[in-house]
Write a structure and sequence with these properties.
Keywords: Cytoplasm, Mitochondrion, Repeat, TPR repeat. The chain is an all-alpha fold. It has 19 helices and no strands. The chain folds into three domains: 67-106 and 113-224, Serine Threonine Protein Phosphatase 5, Tetratricopeptide repeat (Alpha Horseshoe), CATH 1.25.40.10; 251-351, Alpha Horseshoe (Serine Threonine Protein Phosphatase 5, Tetratricopeptide repeat); 352-435. It is elongated and about 125 Å long.
Length: 441
């Protein structure tokens, strides 16, 4: 029974059948791995926007990488502000590295410990120029060439001045001044003071500008440099003029007189007769306004003489007008009238209606003051017509009032004579409107 339960024995495969199966499997494997085997064509797939963006980014990165590799292959490393700073550092120019790093990176971290330059080097050529100039200054320093350092720093300062970056230019001009002072080179010191004065002028800092221009003038006088004296004097004239006008706007006449006096000295140093005349004119007006007409006469007479030397008739008329006001303040009405008539003649000669109007108004006021109402009326009437012809309606009412008052004063004298000498006839006129003629008329 045990034998009946046993499975029948499996017949062994023949060797030929095993070899055939192995051959068929090897052929199938070769067919699947054969490179010439045709693959089924892929079906249409929609492009993913995300994959497109990633692909473009990869292509851009690859292009940048190829560019870098090409530059390295050509022994030309990429140029940017970081590379230039590193080149200075690797070359041993530590000070130049620090200065260039500040110029190109100041303000990147938002730090306010040092003000950022108004204009950074923006192009590769500009970066190279600043880098080379700074490295030249350090080379000159190592060689003990103060003149070379001065020239290199001046190049950088002039560059920033040309870009209207006054703050950065001042920084390098101050380095120039420091080097010039250590050298004892008056020519370089005078030049540096001049440039610093000009930079502060542009910034509107008049006090600082005056300080540097005065140092420049002092150095030039010591060196007997006539051209430098004129240059410094010219700038000082302009600075003192602006300073004086600021004081006038603030109502500080004494400070204005001081600034105009220094302006006059600078104009003399600059050998500028027009500026000298301007300062004399302003001083004369200021002293007259301060109630010192006697002192004003000296400056105004100088102004008049300068105008005559320059043959400037219009300015000569202004000088005569100012002198007329000073003489009037001193109570010399005769001389005041003479001066205002000279002003009127010049204004008429140049067909200046404004000048004629002003002269006639001044003459009318003086004649009215001394009781010559007929001439006062004459000049006030001319003032009225001149004002009206210029369309100055705001001043026309004033001219009309002055003319009316002068004519009223003119008729007041005979009326008072009638009251004094012929009261009977005056009463008859009042009661019966009997006409009468004053014998004094």
């Amino acid at each position: 029974m045990g034998d009946a339960m046993m499975p029948p024995p499996v017949a062994p495969r023949s060797a030929s059948r095993a070899q055939k199966a192995s051959a068929r499997g090897l052929a199938s494997l070769k067919a699947r791995t054969s490179p010439g085997r045709a693959k089924p064509a892929p079906g249409p797939r929609s492009a993913s926007p995300k994959r497109s963006i990633v692909k473009r980014a990869e292509e851009a990165n690859a292009a940048q990488l190829r560019k870098r590799l090409d530059e390295l292959a050509a022994a030309k490393p990429p140029r940017d502000r970081q590379t230039l700073c590193h080149e200075l550092l690797l070359a041993g120019f530590v000070n130049s590295y620090a200065e260039l790093f500040y110029l190109t990176h100041a303000g990147d971290d938002g730090s306010a410990s040092r003000p950022a330059p108004a204009s950074r080097p923006s192009t590769l050529d500009e970066l190279e120029f600043v880098k080379e100039s700074l490295s030249q200054s350090e080379v000159a320093h190592r060689q003990g060439s103060s003149d070379g350092m001065y020239v290199a720093y001046r190049k950088v300062a002039n560059h920033y001045a040309s870009k209207d970056d006054m703050t950065t230019a001042i920084c390098f001009y101050e380095k120039c001044l420091e080097i010039a002072s250590l050298m004892g080179n008056d020519a370089h010191a005078g030049e540096s003071n001049h440039y610093l004065g000009v930079m502060f002028e542009k910034l509107g800092e008049l006090a600082a500008a005056i300080q540097f221009h005065e140092r420049h003038l002092e150095i030039c006088r010591r060196a007997e440099d006539a051209e430098g004296i004129q240059l410094a004097g010219h700038h000082l004239t302009e600075m003192f003029r602006r300073q004086a006008e600021q004081h006038q706007e603030e109502g500080d006449l004494n400070a204005a007189v001081e600034s105009f006096s220094r302006c006059l000295d600078a104009a003399v140093a600059a050998e500028d007769p027009r500026a000298e005349g301007f300062a004399n004119h302003k001083l004369g007006l200021a002293f007259n306004e301060l109630g010192d007409p006697m002192t004003s006469l000296q400056y105004l007479q100088n102004f008049l003489q300068i105008c005559k030397d320059l043959k400037d008739r219009q300015a000569e008329g202004e000088a005569e007008a100012a002198l007329g006001r000073s003489f009037h303040s001193l109570g010399d009405n005769h001389e005041a009238i003479r001066r205002f008539k000279a002003f009127l003649d010049i204004a008429t000669e140049s067909d200046s209606k404004d000048g004629q109007e002003r002269a006639c108004a001044e003459l009318g006021a003086i004649y009215s003051e001394i009781g010559d109402y007929e001439k006062a009326s004459e000049y006030f009437e001319r003032t009225y017509h001149l004002t009206r012809s210029q369309g100055r309606l705001g001043e026309l009412d004033v001219a009309r009032i002055r003319l009316g008052k002068a004519r009223g004063d003119l008729h007041l004298v005979p009326f008072l004579g009638t009251v004094r000498n012929d009261l009977h006839r005056l009463v008859q006129w009042k009661c019966n409107r009997t006409p009468f003629v004053n014998e004094e008329q």
